[in-house]
């Protein structure tokens, strides 16, 4: 009892020291608040005198209002959580009480059933033995009740220990994870700006830091003390219940034994009640602190879940955007490749048609300008002569020479008519394929514009300009076809006229001594950019041009039976102008084809760059996903390791509790033997050994009862079915009485 009083006094001293520290802290805060109040009064007086508003004060007040609002919201939420937790704990407590009552009733029923055969067997013996057997079951019942209550108390203490340690570990782990996420992704709410941080007083930061440290220390102390206080509380309750049961359950002999020590027991009971009330108050405070710790843990869990959800949402949005961008880009790339292939085929087709037209024009110019060489006989000679330059004519023009020239020109007129028909056929082929080419070009331009809109501003001037140029080429080709048809009709009428008219080529540009005319040189310059047509390299998709050339070559052979039918001289100017226009149209078509080729090359380069960029983006996203998976694996490994450590810790605690229960059982049996010995000697009327100490001082009689858990003090106990448990060790001062 003295030791317990000393312990209580020490605890009171510690509490007094803590209260003094709290008082000092409160006085410091009061001084700080007084200083702030004086400062605010000075500012208010200054503002009232000058009429100016202090901006720093307003900002500080606004910040305080924001903080107070946040704190009030948080306190309301915490209050709701605490109410829910309290209701849930009350329900659990009520359910546990019901279970405890049911278990006690079942235990009493079982004990009654076990005692019935014993009573039946003991009835056959004498009255003395019957009286003894009536008292023994009562002692056994008391011991069983004490064991049950002790077991329940230990179970409750173990549950409280588990809950507290679990809450502390969860709180520490959540704090570590929150610090980790804050270091990686920053704070959840936006931090204060530089001006607000500069305006915030330094004293507020120091106060918050000091308050945080005090709260952490208080939480640690409370978590340590709560286990000890709960264990002491349960033990005291068990002792009080034991004393009540002993006082009310035993017979008149026990009452006589305890009546001698009634006053001392009353004092000890009053002191124990006071101590129990004090312990209950401390337990209530500790429960409140544990509830606050649980609320903080829940807040940390909510912040952590919010961080994780935002991180997963960012990763999911990046993956969705990559998939959305990659699939249409691949489809557009495939469509662009197909369009580029079609355009390349059509460009080759146009190049071939331009070569055909240029070769026909060169052939027409040479046939119209030559005067000294006969007509070409075969197609091969015609193709070779398209690159040759005619020799200069003689300086003296005799009348016979002029007549011969006119005759040859009249002879070449049917060939020119056939060549014009061939050119008109080629123009028909071009116009027939013009619809498909224009549609493909428009599709290409549309796709090009659509792709450029995805990345940069498109050049809206190139697409319409090329379309207009191709449209102009087609219009001019149709006009040229009409003029060629008119030329063939005029040539047909000219062949039927008189041969004595003037020469048909009198109005054509003459060939001087310096060489051919400027138009012929222009045609040669244009033809030098293209190779002469080779029928072996013609594509299979153009049989009509091949047939047209074969018919033109067959018709171009000279026929001796034809009559010389000169045409009129008025048509020469129109032929020359038509030739010039055709040359200009072909030159423009050549330029437009070159522009289209450049655009196609640029488009290929852009598509290639886009494909490279998309591939790099996909690789980067795959790397990010692998990093996230690796981080998740590390977290799972850490959680599994923590779980193993907890299992190991709880297994050790369980072993220690089992050892303590066994030690208590042995000590209780020793106490039972001593009480039995004392009762036996008291019945026999023998003098009890008294050395000035109380006979209930178990520490003096049985030092093994209150020995340490690690000491080797486990006496052997022998169980007698009639007399109850007996010890194999003899107590000093006793003798064997039968």
What does this 3D model show about the protein?
This protein has 738 residues and is mainly alpha-helical. Among the domains are: 1-53; 327-391 and 398-609, no CATH class. The protein is built from 14 helices and two strands; from the N terminus they run H-H-H-H-H-H-H-H-H-H-H-H-H-H-E-E. It has helices at residues 2-50, 55-122, 127-185, 194-199, 202-249, 252-259, 262-369, 379-385, 399-455, 462-495, 518-528, 543-555, 572-684, 698-701; strands at residues 717-720, 724-727. The chain has a two-stranded antiparallel ribbon. Helix 5 (202-249) packs across helix 7. The longest helix is centred in the last third of the chain and has 113 residues, at 572-684. The chain is elongated. The two termini are 38 Å apart. 11% of the residues are buried. Mean pLDDT is 67; it is low at 188-201, 256-261, 371-398, 439-462, 498-567 and 691-738. This is Protein SOGA1.
* Rg on CA atoms, Å: 59 Å
In one word, what is the shape? elongated
User: N-to-C SSE series?
Assistant: HHHHHHHHHHHHHHEE
The stretches of 5 or more residues where confidence is low (pLDDT under 50) are 188-201, 256-261, 371-398, 439-462, 498-567, 691-738
The portion of residues assigned to helices is over 70%
| SSE class | mainly alpha
Tally of DSSP β-strands: 2
Main β sheet profile:
2 strands, antiparallel
Taking the alpha carbons of the first and last residues, their distance comes to: 38 Å
Placed side by side, the strands forming the largest sheet appear as 1-2
Write down the overall mean pLDDT. 67
Kindly estimate the percentage of residues that lie in beta strands according to DSSP.
under 5%
H/I helix tally? 14
């Amino acid at each position: 009892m003295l030791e317990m009083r000393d312990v209580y006094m020490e605890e009171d001293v510690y509490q007094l020291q803590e209260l003094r520290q709290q008082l000092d802290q409160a006085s410091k805060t009061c001084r700080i608040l007084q200083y702030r109040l004086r400062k605010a009064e000075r500012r208010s007086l200054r503002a009232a005198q000058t009429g100016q508003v202090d901006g720093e004060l307003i900002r500080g007040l606004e910040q305080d209002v924001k903080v107070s609002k946040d704190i009030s919201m948080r306190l309301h939420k915490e209050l709701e959580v605490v109410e829910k937790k309290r209701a849930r704990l009350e329900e659990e407590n009520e359910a546990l009480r019901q279970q405890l009552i049911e278990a006690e009733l079942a235990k009493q029923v079982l004990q009654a059933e076990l005692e019935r055969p014993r009573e039946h067997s003991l009835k056959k013996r004498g009255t003395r033995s019957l009286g003894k057997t009536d008292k023994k079951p009562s002692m056994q019942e008391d011991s069983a009740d004490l064991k049950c209550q002790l077991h329940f108390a230990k179970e409750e203490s173990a549950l409280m220990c588990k809950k507290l340690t679990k809450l502390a570990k969860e709180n520490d782990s959540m704090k570590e994870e929150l610090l980790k996420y804050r270091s990686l992704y920053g704070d959840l709410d936006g931090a204060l700006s530089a001006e607000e941080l500069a305006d915030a007083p330094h004293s507020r930061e120091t106060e918050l830091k000091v308050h945080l440290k005090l709260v952490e220390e208080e939480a640690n102390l409370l978590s340590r003390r709560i286990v000890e206080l709960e264990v002491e509380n349960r033990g005291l309750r068990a002792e009080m219940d034991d004393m009540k049961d002993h006082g009310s359950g035993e017979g008149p002999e026990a009452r006589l034994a305890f009546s001698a020590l009634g006053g001392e027991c009353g004092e000890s009971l009053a002191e124990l009640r006071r101590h129990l009330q004090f312990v209950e108050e401390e337990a209530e405070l500790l429960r409140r602190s544990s509830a606050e710790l649980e609320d903080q843990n829940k807040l940390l869990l909510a912040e952590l879940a919010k961080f994780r959800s935002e991180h997963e949402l960012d990763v999911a949005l990046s993956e969705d955007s990559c998939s959305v961008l990659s699939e249409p880009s691949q489809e557009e790339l495939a469509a662009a490749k197909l369009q580029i292939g079609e355009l390349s085929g059509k460009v080759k087709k146009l190049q071939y048609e331009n070569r055909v037209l240029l070769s026909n024009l060169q052939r027409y110019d040479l046939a119209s300008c030559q005067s000294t060489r006969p007509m070409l006989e075969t197609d091969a000679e015609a193709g070779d002569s398209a690159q040759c330059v005619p020799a200069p004519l003689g300086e003296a023009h005799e009348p016979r020479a002029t007549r011969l020239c006119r005759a040859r020109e009249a002879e070449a007129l049917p060939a020119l008519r056939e060549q014009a028909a061939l050119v008109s056929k080629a123009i028909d082929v071009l116009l027939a394929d013009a619809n498909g080419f224009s549609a493909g070009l428009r599709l290409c331009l549309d796709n090009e514009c659509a792709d450029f809109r995805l990345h940069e501003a498109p050049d809206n001037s190139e697409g319409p300009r090329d379309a207009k140029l191709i449209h102009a080429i087609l219009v001019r080709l149709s006009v040229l076809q009409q003029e060629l048809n008119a030329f063939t009709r005029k040539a047909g009428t000219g062949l039927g006229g008189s041969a004595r008219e003037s020469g048909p080529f009198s109005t054509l540009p003459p060939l001087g001594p310096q060489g051919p005319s400027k138009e012929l040189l222009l045609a040669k310059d244009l033809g030098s950019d293209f190779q002469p047509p080779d029928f072996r390299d013609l594509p299979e998709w153009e049989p009509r041009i091949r047939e047209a050339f074969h018919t033109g070559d067959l018709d171009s052979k000279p026929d001796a039976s034809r009559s010389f039918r000169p045409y009129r001289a008025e048509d020469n100017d129109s032929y020359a102008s038509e030739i010039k226009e055709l040359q200009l149209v072909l030159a423009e078509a050549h330029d437009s084809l070159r522009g289209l080729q450049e655009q196609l090359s640029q488009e290929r380069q852009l598509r290639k760059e886009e494909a490279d960029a998309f591939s790099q983006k996909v690789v980067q996203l795959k790397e990010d996903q692998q990093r996230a998976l690796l981080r998740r694996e590390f977290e799972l490994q850490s959680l599994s390791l923590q779980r193993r450590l907890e299992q190991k810790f709880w297994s050790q605690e369980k072993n220690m509790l089992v050892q303590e229960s066994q030690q208590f059982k042995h000590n209780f049996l020793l106490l039972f033997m001593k009480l039995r010995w004392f009762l036996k000697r008291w019945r026999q009327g023998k003098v009890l050994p008294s050395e000035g100490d109380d006979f209930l001082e178990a520490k003096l009689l049985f030092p093994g009862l209150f020995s340490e858990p690690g000491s080797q003090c486990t006496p052997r106990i022998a169980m007698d079915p009639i007399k109850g448990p007996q010890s194999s060790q003899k107590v000093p001062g006793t003798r064997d009485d039968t």
